[in-house]
Amino acid sequence: MSLKKLVDKNMPFLEPQQSVSDALSMMDEFKVSHLPVVRKENAEYLGLVSEDDILDMDEEKSLVENVAGDLKKIFIDEDRHILEVLEVISEEKIPFLPVLSRKEKYLGVITHQTLIDKMAEATSANQKGGIIEIETDAQNYSAALITGISENNSMKVMSLLTRPHGNKGINAVIKLNGPDTSGVIQGLERYGYKVKNVYQGDSKYSSLMKERYDALLSYLNV
Description:
33% of the residues lie in helices and 25% in strands. With 222 residues, it is of the alpha+beta class. Strands 7-8-6-9 form a four-stranded antiparallel beta sheet, covered by helices on one side. Strands 3-4-5 form a three-stranded mixed beta sheet. The two termini are 26 Å apart.
């Protein structure tokens, strides 16, 4: 999917000729710490201006164009993957990410909410089903084996999230397409996987996914 389809065009942008007071008022109105700076006549993206950039200026009536030359030109091309959006937002600690067309024209931004919705969709976080959290060493880990164990017990793996554990370990969260996890658990244990937590209802699923996403979606605290 092209990132162009995920762009939010409702996020306002600043033009270079606008005043610093305009910028601060707009940031306050929309509850954001950054705003894109764009030349409206040709959709040229100049960069992101932050509240700190504005407050550091000497004169309150200065124009945005006076800081435009020093702005970080943080953006992503419309042809990149949604995971790359997550990477940039997390690294830069920004509330949204501007998107440019193939011709380097400003299209709009991808917001946190859009990113969360798409990540939830990609990992089946918005689907009902059982969850198994396991731990194993890297040599023993096999996504194909986990999928096979699940299918042998008439279950489908809807998503499989992994992260390093210690020097050589792996933690994984398995999302299944149904609540009955007992057969899959027995199969996993036979192959040496340590089952740490099991959730068979939806009430605890969102809590578990939030815990797993705390590292992945650290930008939420921006």
